[in-house]
C-alpha cells in the first residue's frame, strides 16, 4: 500500500468509527501535510481517493468535508436459485482454467481472484517460527509425522475446536496438502465414476472441477443467498437422485457468502445421517467471521460419522504453506489409505512450524485484525460498487469470508463483461463458473480480500462503466 | 549410532579398504581402549559385533584377527519372472497396509521399511536454509509459486539434468507433493477406470495400490532381475492388451534393483512412441548410483513427449519435505490442470528452501557421501545375509538404491516368515506385496538404508533362524 493509500485508509477508518462525523471539515492539505509528516501531494492524493470513494466531498474555496448523507447499502440478491436438480456430467474445467489463467498475473486488478492479499498474513513471523522448528527438527519426525500427520499439529487443531465446545479428537484428524486435497480425498473415497453428487447452486468452481476430473455427476440444489442450501429441496434430491455424497460450504459459502444457522446445520446433520449420504463439509472460511462468535460446524452435530469436515490454514494464517485437514468420521480408514497412496504425507517441517505457531504464537490476535480488516474491506467494496455499478445492482452482505456476490441488471452478460474487463486490466469471476448448468449469467463474484486502493477502486469504476455500456 | 557401533563401523571400513588385511591382529582391548579413548567395554562390544558380522575372529588367549578367507558374495537371483500377462483388477492394498502398519514403529528392526535412515540426510543444514528462505520470503511468492511451482526450483532441477547432458526446460517441469503425487497425476491424466496399465514383475507395491485406487487393471510383464523389463514381452503386451500406460522404474528398480542399459532405454523410448503408449518413468533412485556416473533417463531419448518422467528429493536430500516433480511431455497441460484441482500447489516455503540449497549448498558432496555409505551398507547387509540365511539363498547386487531382493529356498513362505519375524520385532517386505498376482512367495525385499548396527545384525540373524526353521 502506498503512503497516500495508507493515509486514506486511516481517514476512512476515522469516518467509519465516527471520530469524523458527516459535515466535519477535514484539515487543509497544508495542515494535514504538517501534522502527518507527509508531503502535500500525498495528502492531496489521499483526499482525491476518499472523494472517489464517496466518503468526502470538496467544496470550492472551502476545503474537504465528510459527506453528510448516510452511506447507503445496496439491496442484496434475494431469490434462492432454482436449478433443475438433474444429475449431469460436469464440463466446466476448461472454461474455468481460461478464466483463471487471465487472473493469475500481478498486473491485473484482482477482483476475480480466489486469493486474499498475502500481505494480510503474518508471513514474516511464521517464517521465523518455521526457521526455528526446521533447525531443531528431530530427523525421525520425517518418518513419524507422515500420514495422518504431526500429532502436535493435530492436537492444536483439535484444541481450537474444543475452545468452541466441539469435541474432536486429535486422532480423528488427518493432515492434508491444503483443504483441496482433503476435499478430493473425501470425494474419491465415497464415490465411484458416474455417481451423483449434490452441490449448491451456485457452488465453488473447484468443486465442479473435482467432480469433472473424477467423472462424477453434479446435482445442483436450490440455495438461498443468505441461509444456504434449501433442506427440503435437498431431501427431495436425496430421494430422487440417490447421490453418493453432498459437498456443501456451510459457512460463508463461496461465492454466495451464505451461512447456515445452527438449527439448520443440526437438521442437515440429521438429514444426511437419515439418508446415509456422506456430507463433505468444506469449511475453509469458518474462522473469518465478522460476528461475535465463530459459527458452528455441521460436524458438531454429527453423531454417526456421516460428516467429513475439511478445513485449512490457507485462508486464515499461512497461504502457500498448503496445510489443511479432514475429520473424516466413519470414513477415516479409507481416507487415510487414499492419502497414503496419493501423496504419502504432508510436508513435515511445515506441519511442525504451524503446530509451534499455534501453540505459542499470536493466532487469535492475528485473526482479530484479519477479521476486522476484511469486514472494513467488505464495506469499502460494497460502497464502491453501489456508487459505480449500474442502478439496480444487488450486492450480498456476507457475515464472513472475502467474497461479494453481485447481481447485475438482468440484461448483463457476465461472461462478456469479464472479457471486456480483462482487456482493460481487471479480472472478474463471472457467475457461470459457479454452476454445472452455467446459470447466473448476470452475476459476478468480487474478491474484497485486497485493500480498496486507488487501483482497485479504479478497477471497480471501470467494471461499472463497462457494465453500463454492456 | 552408539559408540561401539561407530568404532565397529570404523574398523569395518579399514578392513574393506585394505588397511587391515586378512590375518592382521587387532589391537588388544586394553590397547584399543587407550588409543581410541573409549572404555574397554566399548571396544569389547565393537569386537563382538565385528565377530558376529564375520569380519574378525577371536583366537583363545591370542586376541582378535581379521578373518583370512575372502568374503564370499552369495549368488544373485538369475531368472527373469514369467508372469501370465493377463490384465487383472488389483486387490492388494489391504494386505499391503496390514504389512506396512507393522513396519511403521521405531521399535521394529526396519528390514521391511521403504525409507532409508533419516540420519543419512543433511536435515540440519536444510533446516538452516529453510530458516533463511522462510524469513525472507516475498509474500507474493505464495501466489506466484503455486503450480507449476517456483521457477527458481524448476531451474535448479533442470540444471542437474543439463549437467548430465539431458536438456529439460524448466518450463517443462511441474513441482508436486513428492514423486508419489506426480506418479498418481500421470496415471489419472492418461487412464480411465478399467484401462490396462503395464507394470514390472515384480513392481513397487505403491504402483499397484495406485492402480487399485483408480480402478485400473494391471498387466505384469516379465522383468529381468538385473536388466529390467523384457522389451520383447513388453511389445507383445502392447499388441495384445492395448494398455493406456506403462509404469516402469528404469533405474535401481524397487524391489529388484535392476537397471536398464542406455541402449535398452533408447529402445524403450522408441517402442512407447511407436505404440503411442505413455511411459510413466518412476526414477526416484536415479541419483543413488554406486557406479561412476549417473545413469541415463529414458526421458533423455524421448523425442515426441511420450515419457512422463517423475522424480523427487525424498530419497536423496529431503525426506519428509514432500517435494517431487514431473516432466510430463505431451501431457503437460492435462497434468497441470489435474494438479491444480487436486491439491492446488506444493508448499511454497519448502520449494524456495530446496531451490536455495541446490543453488548454494553442498548437494554434490552430500550425495557422494550418501552413495558411498549406501554402497558400503549394501555390502554389509549382503554379507550378513550370506552368513545367516539358509544355504541356497540368493541376493541381488544392485548398482544403486537401498534395497536387496532376496530369494530364499523355494520351500519358504515369505508371508508366513514375515509374520513370525514381526512377532520377534523385525519387519519384512514379503515378495507377494510386489505383484498383482501375488507371486514371489519365497522372496523378501531387505532395506539396507540403515546402518548394520547391532540391532539390525541381530534382526538378520533372527530372520535367518526363522527361515531355517521354515
TrEMBL record, chains A, B:
One of its GO terms (molecular function) is transaminase activity. Keywords: Aminotransferase, DNA-binding, Pyridoxal phosphate, Transcription, Transcription regulation, Transferase. Coiled coil: none annotated. Residues 1-69 form the HTH gntR-type domain. It comes from the Bacteria. InterPro entries: Aminotransferase_I/II_large, HTH_trans_reg/aminotransferase, PyrdxlP-dep_Trfase, PyrdxlP-dep_Trfase_major, PyrdxlP-dep_Trfase_small, Tscrpt_reg_HTH_GntR, WH-like_DNA-bd_sf, WH_DNA-bd_sf. It holds the Pfam family GntR. SMART domains: HTH_GNTR (SM00345). CDD domains: AAT_like, WHTH_GntR. The keyword Transcription regulation applies. In the C-terminal section; belongs to the class-I pyridoxal-phosphate-dependent aminotransferase family. PANTHER family: HTH-TYPE TRANSCRIPTIONAL REGULATORY PROTEIN GABR (PTHR46577), TRANSCRIPTIONAL REGULATORY PROTEIN (PTHR46577:SF2). This is Aminotransferase. It comes from Cognatilysobacter xinjiangensis. The lineage of its organism: Bacteria, Pseudomonadati, Pseudomonadota, Gammaproteobacteria, Lysobacterales.
